[in-house]
Amino acid sequence: MKKISVVAPCYYEELSVRMLYEKLTSVFATQLTEYDYEIVFADDDSRDGTRAILRGLCQEDPHVKAVLNAGNFGLSRNVFASLQRAEGDAVFLVFGDLQDPPELLPEFIKKWETGKYRVVIGQKTKSAENRFMSWMRKLYYAVVNLLSDKKQIRQFNGFGLYDKSFIEVLRQIEDPQPYLKAVVAEYAGEYGVVPYEHRKSARGRSNFNFYRNYDFAMEGITSSTKKLMRCATFCGAGLGVVSAIYGMYVLIRKLLFWSTYPAGLASIMVGVFLIGSLQLFFIGVLGEYVLSINTRTMRKPRVVVGEWIGFEPPESDGNTDKLMKGDKTDGADQ
Q1: Helices 17-30 and 50-60, packing angle to 10 deg
Q2: Angle 257-262-265 (CA atoms, 0-180°, nearest 5)?
Q3: What does the alpha-carbon distance between residue 319 and residue 258 come to, in Å, rounded to a whole number?
Q4: Residue 76, Cα to own-chain centre: how many angstroms?
Q5: Could you point out which of 66, 105, 160, 193 has its C-alpha 20 to 30 Å from the C-alpha of 9?
Q6: CB-facing half-sphere around the CA of 108: CA atoms within 13 A
Q7: Each residue's pLDDT tens digit, 62-84
Q8: String of DSSP letters for 94-147
Q9: Would the pTM of this model clear 0.85, i.e. be above it?
Q10: Buried-exposed string 224-262: b where 16+ CB fall within 10 A, e elsewhere
C-alpha cells in the first residue's frame, strides 16, 4: 500500500487547523481508501491556540504528527524543512490557512499515478485577494520571468504533490535559505498542473503584510537571477557613454559660443539627480544580494525544533534542523 504524506506548515491557524484536518481525513476516508497516510503539521512558533489544537489532534489520531519550532524562522525555511520530514511515497504540501483547497488531493494523486510527473503543482486561475495585490503579483512574475535564468512558474506558491524522489533532491540542497518555487522550476523537469481558485484565508486576513511580501519577493529574485546586477553594470556603462558624449557636446558649444552659451544649470541638475537615483537603486539591489549571500554562507540550521510529537526526531545533518536540549517527544507510535 502506497503512503501519502501531507505536510501542513502553520502560523497562527487556530481557526482553520482542525478544519484542515477534517477535510483531509474525509478525503482519505471516502476517496483515497487504498492509500495509507500521515499528516505532519509544522508550526512556526504560533502564539495563539494553534499548538494546543495540534497536541490534541496528535492524541486523537495516530496518523497525525506535529513539529513545533522553537522560534519563527519564516515560511520558506519552515516549508523546506517540513517537506524533508515526510516518509510517504508522495508528499502533499498544503498550507494551514485553507486558501488552497485540500479536497483537490485526489486530482493531484491521479496525475502523479500516471508516472509522467515527479511534481504536480497547483496553479491559481483566480484569487480572492484584492485587485491591487493581484496586479502586483502578475507584475512580479513578469519581472522575475524576464530576469530569471530559468523560467519561473506563474501563480504557484508551493501547493502541490511531490514524489519521494524529488524530496531526495531537496535533501541534497544545503542552502539554509532555500526558495522552493525556484527549486521546483530548476529541478522538477516536466510537471503536472492542477488549476484551482485561491480562496480567502480562513483567519480572515493574510499573515503577509507589505514587508513580508517584499522580503519574499526579493528572496525569489536573488535566488533565481543574477541579471539584475548585470543590469547595473550595463546601465552604468551606458550612462558613462552618454555622459561623455554630452560632456564633449557642452565643451564644443562652449568653445564655439563662449560668451553666449552658458552650460545649463537645469541639465546638470537633471543629470546629477538621474545618476544619483540610479546609483541608490542599484546600491539597494546590491545590498539585497549581499544579504542573501550572507545568509547562505553562515550555514545556519533552517529551523530549530522545540518539540516533536508523533515520531522520533530525525538525525540532524547540520542543514535541516537542530535539536534543542530537552526536546520533547510524544505519540503512540514512539
Answers
A1: 30
A2: 155
A3: 69
A4: 5
A5: 193
A6: 27
A7: 999 999 999 998 888 899 999 99
A8: --TTSSS-GGGHHHHHHHHTTSS-SEEEEEEEEE-S-HHHHHHHHHHHHHHHHH
A9: no
A10: bbeebeeebeeeeeeeeeeeeeeeeeeeeeeeeeeeeee
